[in-house]
Design a protein that fits this description.
One of its GO terms (molecular function) is hydrolase activity. It comes from Trichosporon asahii var. asahii (strain ATCC 90039 / CBS 2479 / JCM 2466 / KCTC 7840 / NBRC 103889/ NCYC 2677 / UAMH 7654) (Yeast). InterPro entries: AB_hydrolase_3 (IPR013094), AB_hydrolase_fold (IPR029058), GDXG_lipolytic_enzyme (IPR050300). The protein is of the alpha/beta class and 281 residues long. The chain has one domain: Rossmann fold (3-Layer(aba) Sandwich), CATH 3.40.50. The protein is 35% helix and 18% strand. Strands 1-2-4-3-5-6-7-8 form an 8-stranded mixed sheet, with helices on both faces. It is globular and about 50 Å long. The two termini are 28 Å apart. The model has no long low-confidence stretch (mean pLDDT 88).
């Protein structure tokens, strides 16, 4: 699993890891961004289906970091993800991988906040507001239980500990390990301050990064996109349908957020969708 620094900002190196499939042929690239509300997480938290994708699905799997809020606000994060996509299309990455990658076929993916970043890269939403040129969109997007709008009630309504002390509250099968960043995430939910942490005083409204309104305005378009569940995702799917865009919505019931962390979920529907897209590209 080689690691590469794809960008540097104010002395902070921003890295990615890549995994190549066996053999010598050229392979498409699947770029994955981690979740964590843009406040925590790491490219090292690649679930088993991602680590298995090179050998099982013949993909070059790339997991990438980006600078975290609140030290970096949304425009800086947008700059990072754009730089990452540009690096994957560069001669430097072609050389790094020994010419093994098909740089014309890049699909961007991510879970939760990472799915939001994938949708932003795919649609171009938020780049102009951030003072950046939107990159050439990827071939496709896979957004797994993505955030799509931090102006939604989930992010603006305080959530308190009492809910988790209630034995009759909804069951769950997984919780992230404790860390200071996790405490920050919990505090963000408790106080409903995601916008303050991610947007802050950068002068850009949070709505500038909302996917569904951007698509509905016809100013932005998505490439072929696969989305797995989530109530906010329904707004994106409706907007995409209204704009005549190619979006597949896979609704799974009875599963938790971050369900694909469990090795039993191999995400076969997603990888089948990816290869159908690649075969017609």
């Amino acid at each position: 699993m080689p690691s590469v620094v794809y960008a540097e900002h104010d002395g902070v190196e921003i890295g990615l890891d890549y995994y190549l499939p066996p053999g010598n042929g050229k392979c498409p690239i699947l770029l994955w961004f981690h979740g964590g509300g843009l406040l925590m997480g790491s490219r090292k938290a690649a679930w088993s289906h991602l680590r298995n994708a090179p050998e099982k699905h013949g993909l070059c799997m790339v997991t990438a970091d980006y600078r975290l809020a609140p030290q970096t606000r949304m425009p800086g994060i947008m700059r990072d993800i754009s730089a990452c996509l540009a690096y994957l299309r560069s001669s430097a990455f072609a050389s790094e991988t020994g010419g093994r990658v098909d740089q014309s076929r890049v699909i961007v993916s991510g879970g939760s906040a990472g799915g939001w970043l994938a949708l932003l890269l795919g649609s171009g939403v938020g780049f102009e507001a951030s003072g950046l040129a939107a990159p050439e969109p990827p071939l496709g997007v896979c957004a797994i239980y993505p955030i799509t709008d931090i102006t939604a009630p989930f992010w603006t309504t305080p959530q308190h500990l009492a809910e988790y002390l209630d034995p009759n509250a909804q069951e769950t099968s997984w919780c992230p390990p404790d860390s200071l960043r996790m405490q920050l995430y919990s505090y963000m939910l408790q106080e409903a301050i995601e916008q303050d942490l991610v947007i802050g005083d950068c002068g850009v409204p949070a709505s500038a990064y909302s996917i569904a309104p951007g698509i509905a305005s016809s100013k932005f378009k998505l490439p072929p996109t696969y989305i797995v569940h989530g109530t906010q995702s329904e707004d994106v799917v409706r907007a995409a349908d209204g704009a005549g865009l190619d979006v597949t919505f896979d609704v799974l019931t009875g599963i938790d957020h971050l369900y694909d962390k469990d090795p039993k979920y191999e995400m076969d529907n997603m990888y089948r969708w990816i290869w159908k897209l690649l075969q017609r590209a």
